[in-house]
Amino acid sequence: MQEKSSGFQWPAQWTPDILATLMFVVQKGRILLIRKKRGIGAGKVNGPGGKFEPGETALQCVLREVREELHIDIEDAREMGVLNFSFACGTIPEIRCHVFMATSFTGTPTETPEAEPFWCPVDGIPYDLMWQDDRFWLPAMLDGKRFEAFFTFEGDRMLEFSLKAED
Ligand SMILES: CNc1ncnc2c1ncn2[C@@H]1O[C@H](COP(=O)(O)OP(=O)(O)OP(=O)(O)O)[C@@H](O)[C@H]1O
Questions:
Q1: Which of 7, 52, 131, 135 has the fewest C-beta atoms lying within 10 Å of its C-beta?
Q2: Would the CB of 34 count as within 6 Å of ligand 1?
Q3: Structural domain containing residue 152
């Protein structure tokens, strides 16, 4: 396990308000991203995903969210890591996000009121259009490494990070 941090201590006591998921489909050197059209992080590039509904597991949530946002059915979802986000401002709830990868799906990625999908080369991911934490863990995940991370934000701006990833 490799650990990196901004000198920030992982909080001992922290409970998320919201459980959420993200999905990154990678196929033939390309990654399926979305321009998020509404909700937390509207306007940013991200993977599809969203909040758990009552009684759902992380896997059930991510499969439902991807179906709702892009009209595709994922066939081989694998959970790769967990992201914890704490927001200093107090207007955005504390979020724990389970992150999945997949390589196979049925259907055609379709724009919906929530998301505009696009394929992007894995070596050309537009990190400057994404949440600031993504550049810390997404490259490790794309190398097949599992991870857990904690990030603090003030609005859009990342303040501190602590990342544990497989060697
Ligand atoms: C702070 N740094 C961040 N970095 C990367 N991703 C981030 C993020 N902060 C939030 N996210 C993602 O945003 C979605 C929740 O957004 P949210 O608007 O609540 O969900 P969405 O509207 O899609 O879902 P519902 O349809 O309401 O369930 C969810 O996937 C979550 O992981």
A1: 7
A2: no
A3: 17-165
Does residue 161 line the site of ligand 1, with CB under 6 A? Answer: no
How many domains does the structure of the chain reveal? 1
Amino acid at site 96 = R
Which of 24, 51, 151 most suits a substitution to test ligand 1, by most atoms within 8 Å of the C-beta?
A: 51
- Which of 88, 85, 71, 83 shows the shortest CA–CA distance to 32? 71
**Residue owning tokens 């490799």:** 2
Whether 97 is in a domain gets the answer yes
Kindly give the confidence (pLDDT) of every residue in the chain, 167 residues in length, as a single tens digit, with 9 standing for 90 and above. 899 999 988 888 999 999 999 999 999 999 999 999 999 899 999 999 999 999 999 999 999 999 999 999 999 999 999 999 999 877 788 999 999 999 999 999 999 999 999 999 999 999 999 999 999 999 999 999 999 999 999 989 999 999 999 98
Separation of alpha carbons 46 and 125, rounded Å: 10
Residue type, 88: A
Q: Is 22 part of any domain?
A: yes
CATH code for position 48: 3.90.79.10
